[in-house]
Design a protein that fits this description.
This protein has strands at 2-7, 10-13, 18-26, 33-39, 46-52, 58-60, 68-73, 78-83, 92-99, 106-109, 113-118. It is mainly β.
Length: 119
């Protein structure tokens, strides 16, 4: 099993920045890919960005491309999400998640951290 704990959410004004962290523990060697999702009230969960645990394969949703940056520190078993030029529409609960098998579904989820962007 893998446990994921997010941190770093908060309230920020539009145009500001936040950095989220996702600390993984347990069988981290079994992780193939990590992703950040978000869910705003009344909306479906949205995939924001992904990064492979090994290698450099990265994906960004069009809505965050050029503003958000995902990175990882394997020594710390931590994935980060640097969010710049934040917009009110970025307001959501942000979740990190992990995939065990290449091409598989997300097996592990964190508890989520709230990001609120005021206009």
């Amino acid at each position: 099993q893998v446990q994921l704990v997010e941190s770093g959410g908060g309230l920020v004004q539009a145009g500001g920045s936040l950095k989220l962290s996702c600390a993984a523990s347990g069988r981290t060697f079994s992780i193939d890919k990590m992703g950040w999702f978000r869910q705003a009230p009344g909306k479906a969960r949205e995939l924001v960005t992904t990064i492979t645990w090994i290698g450099v394969s990265i994906y960004y949703a069009d809505s965050v491309k050029g503003r958000f940056t995902i990175s990882r520190d394997n020594a710390k078993n931590t994935v980060y999400l640097q969010m710049n030029s934040l917009k009110p529409e970025d307001t959501a609960v942000y979740y990190c998640a992990g995939v065990q098998a290449p091409g598989g579904t997300y097996d592990y989820w964190g508890q989520g951290t709230q990001v609120t962007v005021s206009s």
